Each structure stands twice: as structure tokens, then as C-alpha cells.
Amino acid sequence: MKHDSDRAKKIFLLPCTCGADIEIVTGQAGGAVECPACGRRNEVPKLRDMAALPVKARQAAARQRTWGTAESVALAGAVVAILSWAGAAYASWLPTAAFAPAAIRSEIDRTDDQRLYQALQDFAEASVNRMPMREEVMLRRRTQFASGVSRTLVGIGGMGLLTAAAAWLGGRKEKRPS
Predict the structure, then answer these.
(1) How many domains does the chain have?
(2) Contact 36/23 with Cβ under 8 angstroms?
(3) Residue 41: which domain range?
């Protein structure tokens, strides 16, 4: 595999009569260039003759951080974790009752105390177990489903976080100078 420094073009220095060096590359072989210092037109040697020209010293290139597979996997794992946990939070956010407390309070306030007391006493003395209302059954089912979905999403988020951490640590290990 070629490194970036191997792929960089060689820059040759073509001397001008004014004493300045003109930077040229192999693609300019056989052509003409203008000196940036004096403006004189200079003929560029043919490709086979360019090897005789001095080569510009390469400056130490600053190490550029590249985006690799490890960073991609780490990002994907982090995104999966965040989205899963957000979904889990949303799935677990359900109404806590099948009834509207404000509506019940309003009915109680409109009923006289004697009738309310009698209804509560009759209910307490009743020996019949009442069947759950449709709204209660639906709420129980939704809560159980949401709880399962929430637990699953939390697990997926945990796996995403572990994947992100492993990829990030693996990527750091590969980039350490040896």
C-alpha cells in the first residue's frame, strides 16, 4: 500500500538566469514556464533530462488524522446507542392511568357528599369482583408491550455502546507509533 508521501509528485527546481528557482513537475516536461521572479520564459527540459535537475526538499508533512473503519464503526455504535436509548425512553413514556383524574374529580365535586359516601360504602361492601374495564385492559397490554420494547432497545443501545468503545479503542491501538 502506498503512503501519501509516496504518491506526492516530485517537484524539480529549474534555475532561471535571474537566479530564482522555478518549481516544475513532470507533467510540464518539454513545455515552457514563466519565472515568477523576473517573468522570463524558460524552456522545461524533456522528461528524460529532468532527472538532472535538483529536487525540492520535501517538508515534513504534518500527520493528518484520517477517518478509518474504526472511527466509522465507533460512530455507528454510538448512533445506535443514542437512538435506541431515545426510543426506549419514548416507549416507556405511557399514561399511568386508564382514567382522566380531572374528569373524575369534576364528577366528585358535582355529587353531594351523602350520595358519594353511600356509593363508596356500597362498593366497599360488595362481594363481587368487577371485571377490568376495556381501557384498563388496553393500558395493561400497552404497558407490557412498551416495557418489552424498552428493555430490548436498552439492550441494543448497550451493544451499540460496547461496539463503539471496542472500535474506538481498537482504532487508538492501531494508530500508536511503534
Answers:
(1) 2
(2) no
(3) 8-52
